[in-house]
Amino acid sequence: MNIALMSHDHKKELMVQFCIAYCGVLSKHTVCATNTTGRLVAEATGLPVRLFLSHAHGGSQQIGARIAYNEIDMVLFFSDPQSSDLDPDLKYINQMCDQYNIPFATNAATAEILIHGLERGDLASCSPMGTRWARCWTGTACARFNLLSISSKKVDFFFKMRDTLTCIVGEKLEPRYFRKGAEEGKRYTVDDMQFNAVAVALKS
Question: Is pTM, for the whole model, over 0.85?
Answer without folding.
Answer: no
